[in-house]
Request: fold
Amino acid sequence: MAKKLFFLFFLISCSTSNASVEVNSEISQTTITEALTVSLDSEEILIQILEAYKSFSGNPDKSLDIIWNFAHPNNQAITGPKERFAMMLTSEPYDLIIDLKDYSYKVVYENDENIHYEVNFVNQNNSYLVLTWVFEKTLCFEKPCWRTIGVSEPQFLGSGI
Reply:
């Protein structure tokens, strides 16, 4: 039930956008494929994704590839194709994550198949926000791996300096 709610929430928030990101599927595809075959744990994947958001404007194609390729295939089917996914990332409310300045996270739920992280971050406008990032264990190239199945809408916690 929780998965369905996250998907529904994710879909509702994936409306149209005026922003655009040029999608180049060749950038870092080999690196991401290699990462998926190594069976990284969910924390390592979360860090790679958050670092991609942190440096998004510096190389949007590479950041998009990292975020997209760590999305669960079911999530990709719902939010894709990749061009639509790119528009979603750069639209409200998920544009608040683009070029984040700093982040921290903690596990708030975990079992053998799912893990939920509470991610606190400071965005480019010095606002403090929180969201929930949910991973599900699946198979990647016949090895267990963690992929994103949902991300809640960022919630405003306050302003910084």
Notes: The beta strands are 102-110, 114-122, 127-140, 143-151, 155-159. Confidence is low (pLDDT under 50) at residues 1-28. The CA atoms of residues 57 and 99 lie 6 Å apart. The helical segments are 2-12, 29-37, 42-54, 60-69, 73-79, 82-89.
